[in-house]
Design a protein that fits this description.
Blueprint: H1 14-64, E1 72-80, E2 83-93, E3 99-107, E4 113-122
Antiparallel strand pairs: 1-2, 2-3, 3-4
InterPro entries: N_methyl_site (IPR012902), Pilin-like (IPR045584), T2SS_GspI_C (IPR003413), T2SS_protein-GspI (IPR010052)
Family: Belongs to the GSP I family.
Membrane topology: Single-pass membrane protein
Length: 124
């Protein structure tokens, strides 16, 4: 008896399967890295938004007090959505004595600077 010969074999060779698995593995690794980057960016955006709220709240409180701020630095603490932020109000004179420049600088709990917002406050 003769061995049966198959003129057209069906299926994939081992090399083809390994190449396909390599492509899938590389694609999945890139997808996981992209998802991690998106998560980090979302967390950073949330942190920056909360820090901006802290700075804007301090500047709004200063405007609503209707008092002309004295030149100097003032430290403050702020809580936003369970996170603590440290801030500093920096009041500086301007060329016009009826106005003061006020900067609200915000840092995270570790002391890393996050953002600074500036405004001009006039004498009432």
């Amino acid at each position: 008896m003769r061995a049966a010969s198959f003129p057209h074999s069906t299926g994939f060779t081992l090399i083809e399967v390994l190449v396909a698995l390599s492509i899938v593995a590389i694609t999945l690794a890139a997808g996981v890295k992209a998802a991690g980057t998106l998560t980090d960016n979302a967390a950073r955006l949330a942190q920056m938004s909360q820090a901006q709220w802290c700075a804007e709240n301090q500047l709004a409180e200063l405007r609503l007090s209707r008092q002309f701020p004295s030149v100097g630095d003032t430290d403050f603490e702020c809580q936003q959505l369970g996170r603590s932020y440290r801030g500093r109000l920096l009041v500086r004179p301007t060329p016009n004595p009826n106005f003061r420049r006020v900067d609200a600088a915000i840092a995270d709990a570790g002391g890393q600077s996050l953002l600074a917002i500036s405004t001009i406050v006039g004498q009432f």
